[in-house]
Design brief:
2 copies of one chain form a homodimer.
Chain A lengths: L7 H17 L6 H8 L6 H4 L3 H26 L4 H17 L3 H8 L6 H27 L7 H13 L13 H13 L4
Helix pairs in contact in A: 1-2, 1-4, 1-6, 4-5, 4-6, 4-7, 5-7, 5-9, 7-8
The structure holds a DNA duplex.
Chain lengths: 192, 192
Amino acid sequence: MNVMNDSPRRKELTRQAAQLFVQEGFDRTTVRMLAQEMGIKSGSLFHHFRDKQEILAAVIEEGTQNALIIARAALDDCDHTAEARLQAMARAHLETLLTDRNAHVVALYEWRRLDPEARDHLSHLRDAYEALWEAVIDEALEADLIHGDRFLVSRFVMGALNWTVRWYDPAGPRSPDDLAHELVAMITQRPA
Amino acid sequence: MNVMNDSPRRKELTRQAAQLFVQEGFDRTTVRMLAQEMGIKSGSLFHHFRDKQEILAAVIEEGTQNALIIARAALDDCDHTAEARLQAMARAHLETLLTDRNAHVVALYEWRRLDPEARDHLSHLRDAYEALWEAVIDEALEADLIHGDRFLVSRFVMGALNWTVRWYDPAGPRSPDDLAHELVAMITQRPA
DNA sequence: GGGTCAACCAAGCAAGCGCTAGTGTAAATC
DNA sequence: GATTTACACTAGCGCTTGCTTGGTTGACCC
């Protein structure tokens, strides 16, 4: 048994699992479906993961870590104005969410399926990501760019962004950048 | 068999099913769990519903219908200014989401589990609800209360509202009315 | 060339799944 | 009083589920 290491093989299998989890949802994805997608037999799967739960945890861990990295990079690369930073975060979030970042979608929509143990471990990662958002929101509030309750505003913004996976069509005319612009314009009330 | 009527008995069973679907998710809820919650044996369940799918469809149908009724009533009862109507819709949405929680949450989060046939039938109901929103957004745009792309704005607002089920604590200090105020203030950029 | 090891497979178990068939029964209807 | 209706029961079928077991393969190592 190979459990709990992070071999390249396991990384690859995790990536493929994410795709299926997005397509079918965690509960509807059987170990046999996973195995077929991976090109192995269902039994072999348990050489890499202790159980099905652990696959989910692995996917979510990678997704959240990815989101964190991308968000941090976006913040480092943009101007240091409150508006630019707000926009950078929104764009990074959307890109992560929409340009085939399966793992991130799973992190958002299958969180409840984690057992308490895994949830506890992973919630720290998620908190780090949300802290990034709250910092940017704080700056925007301080710069008088937006107004209102810090907690509520960040929740509303995250909600608006996370909901995009339900309706956004990446093949359509709007780019993630467009969406980010429009969202920031909406809450800062400047002409788009 | 009693399928497809809407006896009071069936209404009550549907209500109980909604609770379990919220707690466990549709896939994790077995017919045996449903039956136990309803105080009958699993076989008896199929006297009221053709299959498990139909229970889900019944729950979602009731949830959406409820939301429609409440939203229409809220619009009828409020001032005819764009701002009042926007606020009334937001408050109605939140109240639906947070008080009569179960059915509406299922409608939001188990939609994908419907088979194509049921989805087709129910999408008309959902479209009617969304049309209400888009009308209110249109008025707000026309009144210069908010700016931007009609489609995007309504999606963002719905996202912010729907996301509340993930973090809102009805026992906390904030009322649905508070949330609605804050949200409208955020997108119209007036002091809360 | 024997030993090690990750990676895989074939076969299948025990449990649980949605659902069906056939029956019982009390109240309503004729 | 006979028939129908609504609602519940018991028993279990056929299938799928997550996971286990015991063994094989081939690459690499001293």
